[in-house]
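User: quick one - fold this with guanosine-5'-triphosphate bound?
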Amino acid sequence: MGASGSGKTSMRSLIFSNNPASLTARLGATIDVEQNHVRFLGDLILNLWDCGGQDAFMDSYLTTQRSTIFQHVGVLIYVFDVETNEMHKDLEYYRDCLDGLRQFSPDAAVFLLVHKMDLVRDKGGTFERKKKELQEQTEKGQGPGQVLTSVTTFGTSIYDESLYRAWSSIVHTLIPNAAVLSKHLTIFAEACSATEVILFERTTFLVIATSNPPSEPEAEPRNDLEPTRYERTSELIKAFKHSCSRVREEFHALEMELPEFSAVLDEMTKNTYVLIIVHDPTIETAALRLNIRMARRKFE
Ligand code: GTP
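Assistant: Sure. Structure tokens for the protein plus guanosine-5'-triphosphate:
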């Protein structure tokens, strides 16, 4: 959900259709609702509704189509254009959507994306201001005893990795067995003497789960790992895959051996890729690839 031109279809086309950001300027306005079914993990199918944001459509979602639009919602993603001149109207629609959600899907999670952050100079300050404003509006819209489960706000742009951070987090809330996956990835990381192991969805390259940091007390936590490394990897691999497709090559796997660390990225299951990061120079990448091959059946 979100006003017309706020960037909903652009983000969908980047994440789910592998199109580059430069092509989004050609997208036309969405008419009514466009539905996408994305097979995510085995039997888990993500049913994505892109709701065209022109006023006439919004009014119809909130009146005649209300029960169809707000029934069985897992996650509501509301996109706000950071530079909009019509914030007042946006907020009115947003509060009405919250109301629809409370009525028909009270357990749904809510994600607010303050989008097109590339257009503002003071990113930190602007984001904090918008986040506070949205928080106030959310509270204002909540009646007594009707608190929605969770509302999370992200600053995003199609021109950097921030979009992947937000969408990985969104998808993570929809994966029923994320904690079990993390547990298995942690065991796999230990077996590989790896610093960490990350599982990505095959088409979107969104992060599904990661291993947990080692729990032994003698293991020093590493502080040289970039906090944005997951979403940067998603963005870089997606761009690389796009370059491969332009020369009609298919992306299969990736291996890096640097003095500080080695990395292996390879298919784990039909729908996932795994990335193993190792800082121990005695571990051979061939051994990591062998471990992936042997672990495949367990993760299928
Ligand atoms: P409706 O279909 O009418 O509801 O609009 P929409 O929300 O789907 O908007 P759309 O995705 O069509 O994007 C409108 C314009 O915003 C396009 O020209 C995009 O290139 C541009 N845009 C989308 N995301 C960003 C972003 O992160 N930064 C900037 N600068 N422009 C963006």
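One thing worth noting: The pocket of guanosine-5'-triphosphate is lined by residues 2, 4-10, 24-25, 27, 29-30, 52-54, 115-116, 118-119, 157-159 (CB under 6 Å).
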